[in-house]
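Quiz preparation item.
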């Protein structure tokens, strides 16, 4: 008797840790959802700096080889695992997944899947698994932002930065955003920033102090690190909070701790992956209710027209290398996505 052939799908496969360009698009078996999971026909997948670290074995997590990168997907429900309620086949959803997103079909934990608001495209929805939740968690959970406070957002034209601008404005804050070009400053302004600063030609610390009347900002959202993080401390006021999200500069800063004492400031770390169960020995189930509230709030903001997620570049799956290069060269002014 002839053995039934597995159904195949196209996917970007990492067979050995190394440069992104070493990977290729291959035909691999279509996975099936287990209990508590959904299979998603992927329409769009987000491309991020974190994925470049994952395939070069420089990330906090190490997937088993071979694997398919990609942690942010949007598409339609293709199959439903045992014990999952509330979804029908064909329902548009977005999801954060461990890996597997750069493929025609991906598997997600049902507790990390959420219905896409009607006014959100599949491409825009790739900002909702991680980018917008990261900014939400930074501002709402960690900084506990208050109305009329002033927020300094670094990387204001990027996916996380633009999300932070939008959420901060919804919460009634004043926003100063930094970006690396005049074009990117305009994009940050379009997202609602009250003041934009080109950090390549201007001293953001002095401008921030002047704009705030010498007081300094109340909250800093810093995905950059390095000198940006250090100079941010000198642009902050009393009782202020700096939320560090990562080190896109490649440099981990060593802050002068005495400044925290003098100004009663706080530096707070945020690894959003913790809430997704990306820590050793944790499946993320303890945060399920918290994430449900977060995503309900974000989707309500979106449905009411309060947020404007921006996709700047779209590439077919076969051009995954060009997509990542766009991210690494900081050419994007929003989310970079792969379309299947």
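Solution:
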């Amino acid at each position: 008797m002839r053995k039934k052939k597995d159904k195949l799908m196209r996917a970007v496969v990492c067979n050995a840790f190394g440069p992104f360009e070493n990977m290729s698009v291959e035909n691999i078996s279509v996975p099936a959802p287990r209990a508590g999971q959904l299979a998603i026909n992927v329409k769009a997948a987000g491309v991020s700096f974190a994925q470049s670290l994952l395939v070069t074995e420089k990330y906090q997590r190490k997937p088993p080889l071979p694997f398919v990168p990609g942690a942010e997907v949007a598409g339609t429900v293709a199959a439903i695992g045992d014990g999952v309620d509330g979804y029908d086949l064909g329902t548009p959803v977005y999801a954060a997944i461990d890996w597997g997103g750069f493929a025609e079909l991906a598997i997600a934990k049902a507790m990390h899947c959420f219905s896409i608001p009607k006014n959100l495209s599949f491409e825009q929805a790739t900002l909702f698994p991680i980018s917008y939740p990261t900014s939400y968690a930074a501002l709402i959970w960690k900084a506990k932002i208050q109305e009329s406070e002033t927020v300094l957002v670094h990387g204001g034209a990027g996916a996380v930065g633009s999300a932070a601008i939008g959420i901060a404005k919804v919460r009634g804050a004043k926003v100063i955003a930094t970006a690396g070009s005049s074009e990117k400053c305009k994009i940050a302004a379009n997202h609602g920033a009250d003041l934009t600063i080109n950090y390549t030609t201007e001293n953001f610390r002095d401008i921030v102090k002047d704009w705030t009347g010498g007081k300094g900002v109340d909250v800093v959202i810093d995905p950059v690190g390095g000198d940006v993080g250090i100079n941010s401390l000198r642009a902050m006021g009393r009782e202020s909070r700096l939320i560090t999200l990562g080190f896109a500069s490649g440099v981990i800063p060593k802050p002068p701790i005495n400044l925290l004492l003098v100004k009663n400031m706080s530096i707070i770390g945020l690894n959003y992956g913790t809430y997704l169960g990306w820590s050793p020995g944790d499946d993320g189930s303890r945060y399920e209710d918290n994430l449900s509230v977060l995503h309900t709030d974000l989707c309500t903001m979106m449905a009411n027209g309060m947020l404007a997620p921006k996709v700047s570049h779209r590439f077919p799956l076969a051009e995954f290398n060009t997509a990542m290069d766009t991210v690494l060269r900081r050419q994007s002014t929003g989310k970079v996505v792969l379309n299947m």
